[in-house]
Design goal:
single chain; Spore Coat Polysaccharide Biosynthesis Protein SpsA, Chain A; ten-stranded mixed β-sheet; 10 strands
Length: 316
């Protein structure tokens, strides 16, 4: 089996059909399977999945008898997956035509690449309207080379959209889930996979997927809860420190940690939460390691949030 696409699903009845249909109807010149696991959803997610399975025999359906959470569900998916390559897609996102073929072709043609991702169209679920490009509009896009590695992942965190990632199978797929993060699971998982695999993380600029934004999406839940955003920040910091297992230099890890706190500071500044902004920006200046001039300037003017906004080009 050339490729396994793994799809976790929990309470995704409105979206799972479109997601799975976009995968099982992909045209490829190789065999692939789509492995989906329903995590004991209380809605009719499982019934929707079963309906599709009757028409597509390469759709492999699993169901948890009790809710296991994302990590438990991922474990089942990876234990079942048979592919030489593994792709991950969230059950509310959409694969565009050619996604699987182009990513497999790239891995076949670039043996030094262990993980490949593509551009994604972020869209509003209610209207279908394009919001922005996940990679190109990332605020540190200029620092991310076409061929990145684990040090870029640490320094600039989540520059690859979860449902755009495909990587090579390795002997420690389950070990890669052992990262102790509960809320944000994609970044530490990517860290573990690339650390175990070595090699590069390469970007395809083609738009091969759509990332759905809706009221129950990860980003929406985080925006509604400041404590959740703080918890996510600490999990990202913990994930950065996973680099120690793979011999990444301490300065690189510290830059990454400072960047995470800087990103959180800007997040709270946009919300006019000035106290949380100050807390995060103070944490972002450990050992005075600034990852760019912008970071240093924001730190130096941390007691003047309106000045910071002007420097960043935000409307005050």
């Amino acid at each position: 089996m050339k490729l396994s696409v793994i799809v976790p699903a929990f309470k995704l009845a409105p979206f799972i059909y479109e997601c799975l249909l976009s995968l099982v109807t992909q045209h490829t010149n190789f065999d692939f399977e789509v492995v989906v696991c329903d995590d004991a959803s209380p809605d009719n997610t499982f019934e929707v999945i079963n309906y599709l399975q009757s028409a597509f025999p390469h759709l492999v359906v699993l169901r948890n008898e009790v809710n296991l959470g994302l990590i438990g569900t991922m474990r089942r998916l990876l234990e079942t997956a048979r592919g030489q390559y593994i792709a991950y897609v969230d059950g509310d996102d959409i694969a565009l035509p050619g996604k699987l073929q182009q990513q497999v072709d790239y891995l076949e043609q670039h043996p030094g690449c262990s993980m490949v991702y593509h551009e994604s169209d972020m869209f509003d679920s209610a209207t279908g309207q394009h919001l922005k490009w996940y990679s190109k509009d990332y605020y540190n896009y200029q620092y991310i080379p076409q061929q990145a590695d684990i040090t870029h992942l640490i320094r600039y965190t989540v520059f690859l959209q979860a449902s755009s990632v495909m990587f090579r199978r390795h002997a420690s797929l389950i070990q890669a889930l052992q990262h102790d993060c509960k809320i944000i699971c994609d970044f530490p998982w990517h860290m573990m996979n690339i650390g175990l695999l070595g090699g590069t993380i390469d970007r395809l600029d083609a738009v091969l997927g759509r990332y759905r934004i809706h009221n129950n999406s990860f980003g929406a839940q985080t925006q509604q809860n400041h404590q959740r955003r703080l918890n996510v920040t600490e999990e990202l910091v913990s994930a950065c420190r996973l680099g120690q297992q793979f011999g990444v230099a301490e300065d690189v890890i510290e830059y990454g940690v400072n960047h995470i706190y800087f990103s959180a500071a800007l997040y709270f500044l946009r919300l006019n939460e000035t106290e949380l902004f100050r807390q995060m920006i103070e944490l972002s200046a450990s050992r005075q390691l600034y990852f760019d001039q912008r970071h240093q300037s924001v730190f130096e003017h941390r007691d003047q949030p309106d000045v910071v906004k002007q420097q960043l080009g935000w409307v005050v």
